[in-house]
Design brief:
Elements lengths: L4 E8 L18 E8 L6 H51 L15 H10 L5 H10 L7 H12 L2 H4 L2 E2 L7 E2 L4 H15 L1
Parallel strand pairs: 3-4
Antiparallel strand pairs: 1-2
Helix pairs in contact: 3-6, 4-6
Length: about 190
């Protein structure tokens, strides 16, 4: 019994956009294989099998080229989306910085305002938790950036210049204040997330 050989023709539709795959709704190249049986030939089976192998290899190479192009397009799209996300995060950080607090106006600009805030922010008080929640709007991705935003939100430059960490010289110690404790509490919750 003689076996029948097949001839394969590969059609590529490159003039029109590729059709959408119905399951994933992503572009897929259109490849159609058309098989036409050839009449059995004597002594030429080796040539036919080599031809079929060559055609199969060229088809695989063509498919890989299409996949490479799809991959390049997806990388470009992911890069564009990543830029949009970064821009949105920067914009959200600017918009969410609180301009006022339900407890007192921000930023604090005098030592009297600071002392009034200190009195309201006693440990375990509801006002303290409310202030921590207000500072949560400052946003940020790194502890240093979050702390700088919170300090800019809470203290004017003039008032901040009257403090240092330990209270050396003519300045007031910041490390033992209730405002410091609120900043630290908020910073701890940010870095644990």
């Amino acid at each position: 019994m003689a076996s029948a050989s097949c001839e394969f023709t590969v059609y590529y539709f490159s003039d029109s956009p590729p059709p959408r795959h119905h399951l994933h709704d992503s572009p897929r190249p259109c490849h159609h294989l058309h098989a036409t049986p050839l009449p059995p030939q004597q002594g030429n089976s080796q040539g036919n099998s080599q031809l079929l192998r060559n055609m199969g290899i060229s088809t695989v190479i063509s498919l890989l080229n299409h996949l490479r192009e799809d991959n390049r397009q997806l990388k470009e799209e992911v890069g564009r989306l990543a830029q949009e996300v970064r821009a949105m995060r920067r914009e959200m950080g600017r918009q969410e910085t609180p301009q006022t607090s339900p407890l007192f106006p921000l930023p604090l600009s005098t030592m009297e305002e600071f002392k009034a805030a200190e009195a309201l922010l006693k440990p375990n008080g509801t006002q303290r938790q409310l202030m921590v929640s207000t500072l949560a709007l400052c946003g940020g991705t790194e502890a240093g950036a979050i702390l700088r935003r919170m300090l800019r939100t809470l203290l004017s430059n003039g008032l901040a210049s009257q403090f240092n960490w330990a209270g050396k010289g003519e300045k007031t110690a910041f490390k033992h204040t209730n405002v410091h404790d609120v900043l630290f509490a908020r910073l701890c919750t940010c870095t644990q997330q």
